[in-house]
Every structure is written in C-alpha cells, then in structure tokens.
Specification:
about 55% helix
Length: about 400
C-alpha cells in the first residue's frame, strides 16, 4: 500500500499565513498544500506520491511558485503536476473525472485537499475516490480544507471533512442492508466507528461493536440456514440500539439504527417462530432457496415444540415430516413407514395443530426444495419466476396462520 496526496491548485492570490490542525501549527506558508504536507505527510517515503491537479489558468499563475516551495521541503515522495480541464461543462467534468481516476493506483491510501477547488471539484474528488475504493481497492485516509476565510487572525484552521465523505459509505451500506439484507458493509463501518471511540472505555462504542457482531452472525446464520442458531440465538437489537441512541456522539446513525430495529423486531431469543421470521426475511431479500428450506424446517420445528418433542432429535423431526406428508397426501395408515407407523397418534396431533391448507400445501415445499437441490435439471423443473411465486404464496398462508396465533395470545 502506498500513500497518495491529491490537491487542486487554485487561481487566487495565495497569501502567507499560519495553518493550524489540532495541536500542530505551520507558520508563514503561502500555500495550504505546503502546510498539509508538513502536517500529514512528513513521514512518507519514496513509494508515496503527491499529485497537484491544475487548470491552464492556475498553472500559469501559481504552479511555478508552488513547485519551488514543494521542492524546498526536501520530501521523499515524488511530486507531479497534472493538467485538467476547467470542468465548466459536462464534457469537461467527465474528462476531469477520468484523468483523476487514472492517476490513482491500486491499493492507494488517499489524502485529499479540496481547499482551492472550483465549485464542482470537491464533489468530483469525493466521487472519484469512492469509485477508486470500489474498483482499485483504494482507501480514503482524509479529506481536508484550509479555511483561510474562517479566521481574521494570521492563523487559519484546517478542517477535517472526512466524516462528511463517510456519509456516502453509510448511505451505500444502509441501502444494501434495507434492500438486500446484506450486512457486510454495515458491519465493517460499525466496527470502524467503534474503534475511533476508544472501545475499551466507551460503553456506547462497546454496544455498537456488539450490534455489529450480532448482525454479522445473524446474517450468516440465515444465509446458511443454521436453524438451531436462528431459534436459540438470534434476537432483536432493541436494547442495544436504544442504549446507543441516548448518546449524541452517534446521532448520525439514528435513522439507520431505527431501520435495524424495525427489521429485527420480530426475532426473539429461544423462539421457534424465529424460523418463520427468517423465512420472511429470506423471501424479502430474494434468498429463495434459503426461504424454502427454513420455511419447511421451521414448520417441523414449531410442531415439535407444540408437542413437547425435542426438535434437535432427528427421529422427532422425521415423525413430524412423515405426519405432514401422509396427511397432505391422504396416504392410508397401512402404507405409513416407520417411525410414524409405530406412533400413529402423532399424525393426528399434527393435524390438530396446523390448518388444513398448510398441510395440503406443505408437500409442494418438498418438491420445490428438491427442484432447487437439483438445480432445475429434473424433467418437471419449474421456471424461476414460478418457484418464486409458489414460495411467496405458501409463505403468505403460513404468516397468516402465525399472525392469528399471536392475536390470540
């Protein structure tokens, strides 16, 4: 990984002043780039790079003076000036985008100075860096702005605008979670933010880290149909989220946390109905094969629980599965197979728990599951759209059944 400093040279009259960032102050510099390099890049090596982008006008007015100042710093990274269009029309903006993007190498760690930029350049710079993060595995180390106009004294502050650029990352991660149920990007950002808040001493950061771990585990368990974990371990995150929302240091996450709370509210620890909640989650996020499996196994788990049978035992699960099949297909008792043949009363009990519609439609789940497992190579394979519709219809029936149970409680 190499470091990369990106800056845009302006056409204004650069005045000498002092620049301050935190406890560091660089005195009597004419260019903010000089101050930033001293503050952020003093330990950079030969493999690192400094890129100064300029238009024809800014090059003519300021590049020679800036290049002299940069050479006087005796820094190890290479310094390169790059000509870009003014970006006053759409063609120029896209050309500027391409030039900037092409100069970023794979795995670069980027610091971006947007102090002396034409109106559209700060937005363009952030867009280019985000694009490079996806396609070139680059990372954003910081975005800074030398606020010359913010102080009437000779000492001017340098503002860290990096948190604002991270809003784009949070927006993308939130969208992935809401639309697809994907937690990877969200978990990564939560862990990153938790670390910045001193996780050992900050209880809020600890709760955020706990949420990230629970979300990550929940997502993986659902994707891989880990039924026992879904029933016994998955829960809503109301307590952790409410705790975090009391603190203003994470107030920018409130809208996202509300979404997480809403999407996980129906999960409860040690609750067999979690399987149906998970099936609904899978269907909503187009995880159709997982939905079929967890729906079928969830019904078996629920009946085992209602009959006080250990749902972890294979024999008990087979008893319930056989009961659903023989009742759904009206198979005569003399044709039943063990172990149900030795325990026929179980089938009658199953019949009393579920409504007739679920029992009749249950057999279709087995056919759908078999179709998925054989990748549609069987003779009577369904079209993908047909499978999706059939699963959705059965899920609707099952959800209505369980909603009716909840209303009676």
């Amino acid at each position: 990984m190499a470091n990369l400093f990106i800056s845009f040279l302006g056409t204004g009259d650069y005045e000498h002043c002092n620049y301050r960032y935190g406890k560091k102050e660089i005195k009597n510099v004419g260019f903010v780039q000089e101050a930033m390099l001293k503050i952020f890049c003093s330990d950079w090596q030969e493999k690192d790079r400094i890129l100064i982008f300029y238009t024809k006008e800014s090059k003519e007015k300021n590049w020679e003076k800036l290049s002299i100042r940069l050479k006087s710093l005796n820094i190890k990274p290479s310094v390169e000036g790059i000509l870009i269009p003014t970006g006053k029309d759409e063609k120029g903006i896209w050309e500027m985008f391409s030039i900037t993007f092409d100069k970023i190498n794979n795995d670069d760690s980027i610091i971006c100075d947007i102090t002396h930029s034409f109106r559209s350049i700060p937005l363009l710079g952030i867009a280019v860096i985000n694009y490079a993060q996806v396609l070139k595995d680059a990372s954003l180390k910081g975005v800074y702005y030398g606020a010359f106009e913010a102080s009437e004294t000779s000492t001017k502050p340098i503002f860290d605008l990096t948190p604002y650029s991270s809003i784009i990352d949070w927006s993308f991660a939130t969208s992935e979670f809401i639309k697809r149920g994907e937690t990877g990007a969200l978990v990564e950002l939560m862990r990153k933010d938790a670390k910045t808040k001193d996780i050992e001493s900050n209880k809020i950061a600890q709760e955020l880290n706990k949420i990230s771990k629970k979300l990550d585990k929940m997502s993986l368990d659902i994707k891989l149909n880990r039924g026992k974990q879904i029933v016994e371990k998955v829960s809503n995150l109301n307590d952790e989220i409410s705790f975090i929302q009391k603190d203003k240091s994470f107030s920018y996450l409130n809208a996202l946390l509300d979404k997480i709370k809403q999407k996980t509210k129906d999960f409860k620890t040690n609750n067999v109905e979690n399987c149906i909640v998970a099936a609904d989650w899978c269907y909503e996020h187009n995880l159709i094969p997982q939905c079929i499996t967890i729906l079928q196994e969830g019904i078996i788990t629920y009946i085992c629980d209602r009959l006080s049978l250990d749902y972890r035992r294979e024999k008990n699960r087979k008893l319930i599965s056989q009961s659903l099949v023989v009742k759904g297909k009206n198979i005569p008792r003399e044709d039943w197979n063990p172990p149900l043949k030795e325990s026929p009363e179980v089938a009658e009990k199953v019949n009393s728990i579920l409504n007739e519609k679920i029992i009749k439609e249950y057999k279709n789940l087995s056919a759908l599951r078999n179709d998925v497992n054989h990748c549609g190579f069987l003779k009577d394979a369904r079209k993908a759209e047909t499978m999706q519709n059939e699963v959705g219809e059965f899920l609707y029936i099952v959800k209505n059944f369980f909603n009716a149970i909840q209303e009676k409680k």
